[in-house]
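User: Sequence recovery, please. Input:
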């Protein structure tokens, strides 16, 4: 195991100074926040997409299969927002390599991170602050919204729906406003983000936050399936390890297991453009919920009623899976909020047990 980790880590580390130098060269003399001119942007994006694919292969033995690339051209023409299901820390690399280096949404502090900051700025990330995000209330409201049949279909399914709906929503403030402004600016790459807001085992789709849907623009759904399939039943073949990143006991152990896997199988499916109806464009929460159900149906996964907030509650309560993803561990935190969670301790432990079962079997509770 150690020689494999050391070899892959050494190969990636050897290339990092070169990648950082190229990123800084692309940004030399250019003000942060302004779009790169085409003569800089085109070669920089091509290089960064190549680097993302190389890092997946060299660092994690992951060679994705990509279908639906023909939909990228219509997404560029419509200035669509790319949305994807968030499963693993490998997702961003996979998306950058498959979709031609779009601009991800990142925390503001990433821009100044040593080494990686130059890489993020070269990607022309949308830098936002998560604190006080103005789409939380709308995201929470989706819990009570049943999916409604959208009055417009994805553009490939309806030849008459190729013209994007003019968005009536200007954008809002905070993170949603930044995303809306960037999505409408044709001088930048397309914006890409994971509306779930966090990773999980891959066996479901969490509630979507609404930042990607506030602009009222078409969206391009991208589906990531590890282990050879969309659902948990396909987790064991052909890959021996599923890199889904939920509430794990050790992030480092999970990362290292991803590195030593003989192969991390990944299928990337780019769906046709989803053009919102006027009603969806005017209601970001409804738009988000309809797209979530559309993606869940394509993945063959259930759209669950939980979200980033419940994940944070599990973390605060000290609930996670073991290193192997086979048992649920409950490590009570001093002053933890278990008794304050809706449904009490029993509901939390039952939910954690179900998550553990989906993460790899067993699902037994254990108090350490």
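Assistant: Recovered sequence (368 residues):
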């Amino acid at each position: 195991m150690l020689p494999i980790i050391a070899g892959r880590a050494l190969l990636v580390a050897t290339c990092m100074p070169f990648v950082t130098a190229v990123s800084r060269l692309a940004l030399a003399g250019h003000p942060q926040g302004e779009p790169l001119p085409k003569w800089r942007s085109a070669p920089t994006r091509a290089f960064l997409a190549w680097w993302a694919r190389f890092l997946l292969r060299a660092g994690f033995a992951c060679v994705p299969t990509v279908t639906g690339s023909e939909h990228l051209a219509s997404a560029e023409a419509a200035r669509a927002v790319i949305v994807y299901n968030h499963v693993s820390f490998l997702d961003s690399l996979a998306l950058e390599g498959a979709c031609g280096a779009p601009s991800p949404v990142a925390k503001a502090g990433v821009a100044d991170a040593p080494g990686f900051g130059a890489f993020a700025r070269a990607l022309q990330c949308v830098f936002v602050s998560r604190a006080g995000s103005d789409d939380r209330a709308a995201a929470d409201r989706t819990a009570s919204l049943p999916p409604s049949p959208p009055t417009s279909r994805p553009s490939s399914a309806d030849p008459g729906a190729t013209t994007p709906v003019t968005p009536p929503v200007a954008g809002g403030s905070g993170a949603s406003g930044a995303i809306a402004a960037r999505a409408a600016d044709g001088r930048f790459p397309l914006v890409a983000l994971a509306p779930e807001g966090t990773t999980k085992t891959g066996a479901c789709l969490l509630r979507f936050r609404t930042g990607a849907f506030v602009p009222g623009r078409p969206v391009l759904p991208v589906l990531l399936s590890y282990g050879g399939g969309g659902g948990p039943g396909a987790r064991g073949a052909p890959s021996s390890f599923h890199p889904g990143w939920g509430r794990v006991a050790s992030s480092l152990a999970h990362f290292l297991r991803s590195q030593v896997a003989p192969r991390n199988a990944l299928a990337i499916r780019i769906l046709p453009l989803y053009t919102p109806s006027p009603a969806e464009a005017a209601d970001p929460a409804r738009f988000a919920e309809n797209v979530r159900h559309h993606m869940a149906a394509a993945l063959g996964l259930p759209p669950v009623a939980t979200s980033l907030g419940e994940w944070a509650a599990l973390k605060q309560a000290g609930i996670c899976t073991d290193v192997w993803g086979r048992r649920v561990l409950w490590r009570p935190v001093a002053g933890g909020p278990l008794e304050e969670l809706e449904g009490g301790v029993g509901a939390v432990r039952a939910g954690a047990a179900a998550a553990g079962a989906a993460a790899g079997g067993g699902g037994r509770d254990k108090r350490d």
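The beta strands are 65-67, 81-84, 103-107, 126-128, 191-193, 219-226, 266-270, 319-321, 327-330, 364-367.
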